[in-house]
Amino acid sequence: MVSIIKNQLLKHLSRFTKNLSAEKINLSTFKGEGELSDLELNEIVLTELLELPTWLRLTNAWCNRVSFRIQWTQLKKVPIVLSLDEVKIIVETCEELRTNTPSAAAAPVPGKYSFIHKIIDGITINVNKVIVIFKSPAFTANIEISRILVDSKNPRWKKAELPMTRLKEPEKGQILIFKELEWQTVRIEAKSTVDKNLTPLKLLTNQARCRIVIKKRLSDCFVMGSRITIILDDLLWVLTDSQLKAALHFLDSLSGLVEKATEVTRKAKAARKLEELPEYRAQLAQQARVKDRESEISKIFAMCDVVETSYHFLSHKIVLHLSDDCGPGRSTHPNLKDGGALQICLEKFQVDYYPYHLAKLDRKHWPKYTEADIPIVLWQDQALNSFKTKFLDLLDKNITHHAPLSRANKVYTFVQGAKMENDVTSPGAENRRMSNAHQANVKSFAVNQFAKLMTTCVIMRIEDFTIYRVTTSKRKLMLKEFISGDREHMQLPEDAKIIHAEFSYFYYPDDTPFPLPPPKFYVQVNPIQIYFDVDSCLWFNSFVLNLHQSLLDSKQDMPNSDLTYIDVKIEAILPRVVFESSKEYHAQRDRPKSLTFQVTRATITNVRSLEQSSRADLAKCVDSFHMGSLFFGSDFPSRPNDFNIVTQKFLDHIAAKDNIRDTPTELDANNMNNFLCQISRELLWTEAKDVWCISLDPVWGDFHGARASTKPIPFLDAVPITVWVHMNMDPNSTIKKEENRNADIHALAHISNLVSVQLNHYQYLFLLRLAEDAGELASFLSMDANRIMKVDNNGSLIFGALIPQLEATFVMPSQYPGKESSGGDVESFVPDSSSIGDDILIGGSTATVWQHSTFSMSHSIQSVGDGSRKILPNGSRNAMPEMSSSCSMNFVPQTVENKAVAKMNNQTFSNIPNNFNAGLFSMKKGFNSLMTSIDSALKTNVDDISDSISIQSDASSESEKYVIISKDSNERENFLDSMFNVMDFEANTKRSVETANEALEDDCTVTSSSNHSLTSSCRRKDIVSITTFKLNKVEFLQQSVGYSSSIKLQVCNIVNDDCNSIPWDEFQAKIKSKFSSRSRAWSENPSTSCTTTRVKLRMDHDLVLPSSKSLMEMDFSDKDNLKKIFRNFVDMQVSDLDMTMSMSSVIGLADLAEDEIIPIPLPMEINLINIQLHLNEDRPPVNITSPGPIPLDLKLSKLFICRGDDGVFQIYPNKETSVSNSFSSLSVQENDSLNQQVSKQLKLDNDELRRRLLAFERVSEENRLLRKSKEETDVLRSCLTSSQEEVSRLLDEKRNLLDEIKNLQDRLLSDKSRQWSSKR
């Protein structure tokens, strides 16, 4: 008996092994146990069985011991257990893709899904250790996996008997099999075989599991699809830049083979998937007809069904520690010379891969994916419809639709007694009929190809993330956030993702070169916060540039790939950028700790759409720039060598003349062969993708942290900004060279609304320190980029903006502390807007509902009128915006007012409004109620589906009839979501989240009465004075080349208003209630607009050192050294200006502009022409004998003020006089200092000339020697030439002599012959 079983085992296992014999099999028949030892597997058969990629080849596979256990009496319920001790596998890459032709030994036996298939599918496998050795020409890798378990699970991924681990649908003839692969640890180590200097790459992961759902056809056991999910526990990985370089080199070495193999296998599998789709659609139609009488098992099968193959990766938490190695890749900043480390924390990182998705089908069957929440679905559908319409219209241009001009003659014939009617047509009509038939065939072929269009989609989702600031040896502080999700601040619901990114690539399953839509990349970023940190920005810049440069060094020739032609759209909802003060100022109560800029909705795209980035919008922006003289004029402040801000590229893009390829005017639809020769996959990839549109709708700024106020203090009122950018670095760039008048990056900012800012003395000081940090960051960014990229100049940039009106309000201490004007004077510069609707408060500022809003907020705004706000966990009083239905977040608040608004506007979840700023109020309470309502609105009605179902099989039948034995209608957990959940982790996370929410609610819940009392106790009673400057038509331009930069500014007119006394709280209340309405209703008044420019300014920032190389050698441990190597110069011209101001405002502005440190003198030249200044004396008189206030009038026809590097101001009647008297007016001390400087400079010049003279003497001596050698060489060359001529002459003489000798010999022979003949 045992020998018979052994022979059967040898018979079946011999095709999978090489050295299997009966002696290696230890078998116990009745116990159901057996053991095999020292097995060497057949690598060819194993390669085909495992369906390895065609770029991999299995060269060796060995197992030391295999044991199995079979329970014969419970074979249907208890699986066969297969245990392996140690498995060693050697895999190597193929130079060329291997052919994927299955051999006869590995070919599966076709047949109906039977009992033996159930037993095989239910096998449980235990592996103690697996060692995989991966070999490639570039590197080798060792992968060690320990304690592997492959087990069967039920649909809820719990341990169950074998019949409950399968779901069978008899009507469809399909079965689902649920398997789970679990392992304890994975250790990966890779090292390069080409470059020994690359650091080995190491990775150690903890426990993980892989859940697999396999869908088979019962008729022939064909695998119709599968869903594979890898769930990884917490991962901690420490990486240096050298290890990342090694990883990038390893991936780059495999990218070519993998891409080629993927292209081949994807098309083959996609063609097979298309064959199944008609059957799938027919099943859906049949299910719709019999939905009422559908069985419970069919409903469960539909919930767990695998409609298409997909792969998923989920990690609950990934912590990456990045550090830089010693070397040239580090930043030159003194804080980063010794290196630094950056920590990245990702929570619930998920990647989904759908390789075979039909483009025209929906995504409702994708796990954990809601189409209504993702705007890319609508964006992609619109793009596909536009693409199809464009191609069919191009095809219809050559298809003629006409009716015959005359009736055809008819001839009647009789055939077997029947009357037949024949058309007698001309040859031309017959040709037209044939042409129409060909055209119809071509169009039908095009429609069929579009129906086969498939897409490969990669989705990345991150529930939350945090990038911490760089830590160094000098900065070992507690971890602080650099970039992170703003989940807690915005009260986001638990299921909201901070980042959602999708990449879609289109293809056809056949090799027909039919036109394809361009790939699409979409990113949605929910509220995040970014903290400005100089060290972190510099470290991250150097780290990335070092990696980039290493890739460029390894690949000298980088071909332009078609993947660079991509439609990109990035949306960010409510991002915040926070600028923090580097020092604490405890004695300054009004000193803010941070400045926060926030945007309701930020969009970055290179696609022209009618929503907000159309060519008409760009044309409107360019037209506004044409109205400014700064951008096209050549007068001051412009110079001849300045860049042109509006280039021909923008004009060509507006007219669609910058296409990367010409669009064919028509296609030959009369012949299929000609039609196929004309088309290609990139036929309609014509539009340029190097013009980007950045939309900030709107942006506002607030100061936070001042101890004198518990509320945020507005800095910038909400204003929408659109920036158009084109770059010269794009591989698909179509920028034409224009005599060096183009920069590498051109940016145009379009602002169509009023810009309002307010500032006090301490906020001004905050901005000064922030400007110093920004300048330090820009300088070191340029130095690091030039040094790492090994270039002398890191490019050029030009940015321009035209502001129709800028209102700057300066808040100063009042000169009348005991006098209050109760806001009467404020009305003079804050116009009445009682006819304009109230405004919506966001984050302490006012966000405006713009005129092009698609929502009417008259109902919902009333709920904000009470002015009540809740206190956030950080203790600051802030009003959070609550968003209504939008294209990116789809947050729909279920309040009475918003329901009415939604009903009036007929808004649905899938619609994308043109303006995201449709409704904004109280974000703190809004997100929770919004997302709760979204869950209820989006949740599918599954009342008839059980959430807790156990399945039992009838053991007396092979058909496995399933019955429902228990149901719980109260719990409705989705089967697909359970595939991504791990019970232990979810329980711990849920418990901690619930505790945090309860604590947060306790801390944040404040009644309206307590809120009112707190507000009353914190009101400020101090009196301030206000001065507002209204600047009309402000033109701004900034250009930079390397380390040098210039700022140009023009203002058409300046008008000012004063208010000498008003309570601070009253002023802020009026500002909040008036600014937004004024900004919304503002429009440029043609009567107040002027054509002449009142103020012109130019500020140049240049490097003092002779070259940038000497900059790299300097020591910047002292920040003052950085300021000394650059020189700033301001040139200003003011003309035809008439202003009226109060003396208290003038004194207050002088005090406001005073710095807290002694700055380096700023050289400047100010030219005043025709200035009239009326100063009203409003200060109280010092003497009791004063007759009263006397105004002061000043009229300046011409005045020139200059300031040198020494900080001394000099005043001249005009600029010409200053030039002529500049030297004569110098004092003796100034002359001495000047002489010392001149002598010092002369000494340096003499030393330089002496060095140059020595070098010249050495060069002269070398030139003399070279000249002598040249002369000798010429003599030798002439001698050689003469010798060659002499040799040639001698050779000619020799040749002549030989000819003469030959003639003489011939003559002698002839004479002898004659003598001989005469003797005879």
Describe this structure in words.
The chain has 1320 residues and is of the alpha+beta class. The chain has 24 helices and 42 strands. Strand 34 (951-953) and strand 35 form a beta hairpin. The protein is globular and about 130 Å long. It starts with a helix and ends with a helix.
Using only C-alpha atoms, the radius of gyration works out to 41 Å
Instruction: Report the sheet-strand fraction.
Output: 25-35%
Helix content: 25-40%
- Unreliable spans are 401-424, 821-973, 989-1018
- What is the number of helices? 24
Q: Give the class from helix and strand content and strand pairing.
A: alpha+beta
Q: What number is the mean pLDDT?
A: 76
| End-to-end separation | 122 Å
Strand order of the largest sheet: 18-19-22-24-25-27-26-23-21-20
C-alpha geometry: globular
The major beta sheet can be summarized as: 10 strands, mixed, barrel
State the assembly state of the protein chains. Answer: single chain
Kindly state the number of beta strands: 42
How would the blueprint of this fold be written?
Layout: H1 2-13, E1 25-28, E2 33-40, H2 43-50, E3 56-69, E4 81-93, H3 115-121, E5 124-135, E6 139-152, E7 166-169, E8 174-183, E9 185-192, E10 201-205, E11 208-217, E12 223-232, E13 235-240, H4 241-289, H5 296-304, E14 310-323, E15 341-358, H6 376-396, E16 409-415, E17 418-424, H7 427-451, E18 454-468, E19 481-485, H8 487-490, E20 499-507, E21 520-525, E22 528-531, H9 534-554, E23 567-573, E24 576-580, E25 594-599, E26 601-605, H10 615-626, H11 648-654, H12 672-678, E27 691-704, E28 713-727, E29 745-750, E30 755-760, H13 761-789, E31 796-813, E32 840-842, E33 845-847, H14 896-905, H15 923-938, E34 951-953, E35 962-964, H16 975-978, H17 983-1004, H18 1008-1017, E36 1023-1041, E37 1044-1063, H19 1064-1081, E38 1095-1103, H20 1108-1112, H21 1119-1124, E39 1126-1142, H22 1143-1152, E40 1164-1176, E41 1192-1203, E42 1209-1212, H23 1215-1220, H24 1228-1319
Parallel strand pairs: 4-5, 12-14, 13-14, 21-23, 22-24, 29-31, 30-31, 39-40
Antiparallel strand pairs: 1-2, 2-3, 3-4, 5-6, 6-8, 6-9, 7-8, 8-11, 9-10, 11-12, 14-15, 15-18, 16-17, 18-19, 18-20, 19-22, 20-21, 23-26, 24-25, 25-27, 26-27, 27-28, 28-29, 31-36, 32-33, 34-35, 36-37, 37-38, 38-39, 40-41, 41-42
